[in-house]
Amino acid sequence: MDFNTLVGKHFLFYGADSHYIRLDDNVYEVVEDPSDGYRSMLDEVIHHGVFTPSGAIFLRTPLAIVEVKRDLSGYKDGYILEDVEYQHCWLEFGTDNTDDYYPMFYFSFTPMLSTLRKRKEELKKQLFVDPLDWLFEQRET
Q1: Separation in Å, CA 86 to CA 15, 34, 82
Q2: Using CA atoms, how far apart are residues 1 and 106, in angstroms rounded to an integer?
Q3: CB-based burial, 21-32: b 16+ in 10 Å, e otherwise
Q4: Which side of the chain, N or C, has fewer Cβ within a 10 Å radius?
Q5: Each residue of 15-43: pLDDT tens digit?
Q6: Share of the chain above pLDDT 70, in %
Q7: Of 21, 25, 47, 39, residue with least CA distance to 107
Q8: Cβ 45 vs Cβ 58: under 8 Å
């Protein structure tokens, strides 16, 4: 699958686990080139469709809406998943060619604490209803 076809598009981002990522209902596997133990680089991105590989765990609610961007800054040749609302880089992966003889594969997930705290508060509200709130709602109706 050519991951370049996703560049510039927006997706619901459900997180990353190991080298797997979930965008909307699709799971992708970011694969490091296995050919050389000293030199590592991005080999390919495999599209698994809606199938979640064994052991990969994702959130049930999305963390953010992200835009897939190419990262060709400096010596990098990779991708960024950037939060549309906050411009936070949730995930970056690809090949860092700082040293041409020893390129390096990178896969870096960076949570945004404010978003995670907000999601936690939303979930708390869904899971726990304060009995006094419920009582006042009953009296108003």
Answers
A1: 16, 35, 8
A2: 19
A3: bbbeebbbbbeb
A4: C
A5: 999 899 999 999 999 999 887 666 788 99
A6: 82
A7: 21
A8: no
How many angstroms separate the CA atoms of 20 and 54, rounded? Answer: 11
- Both tokens of 11, joined, read 């997706």
Q: Dig out the tokens for 105 from the structure.
A: 């594969």
Is the predicted pLDDT of residue 7 greater than 90, yes or no?
yes
Q: What is the pTM of this model?
A: 0.76
Residue pair 103/96 in contact by the 8 Å Cβ criterion: yes
Please compute Rg for the chain using Cα positions.
Answer: 19
Q: Could you give the CA distance from residue 76 to residue 70 in angstroms, rounded to a whole number?
A: 10
